[in-house]
């Protein structure tokens, strides 16, 4: 799952996510939620790209990375 915002992408690797919810708890803008025991991006418009989700994820399942033009 990916969501673009100003050139950066918030990327979730669903197969790496163990559903611990740590990233959800640390997100100051409530961008993330647990659904079916996996993290999902539910409100990307509020993402400030602070990186707390990436830093706190013990499984490296969520991160900010890439630029939009890399996919072209």
From TrEMBL:
One of its GO terms (molecular function) is 4 iron, 4 sulfur cluster binding. The keyword Phosphoprotein does not apply. The keyword Iron applies. InterPro entries: 4Fe4S_Fe-S-bd, 4Fe4S_Fe_S_CS, Fe-S_Ferredoxin. Keywords: 4Fe-4S, Iron, Iron-sulfur, Metal-binding. Residues 8-37, 38-67 form the 4Fe-4S ferredoxin-type domain. PANTHER family: ADENYLYLSULFATE REDUCTASE, BETA SUBUNIT, BLR5484 PROTEIN. This is 4Fe-4S dicluster domain-containing protein. It comes from Crassaminicella thermophila.
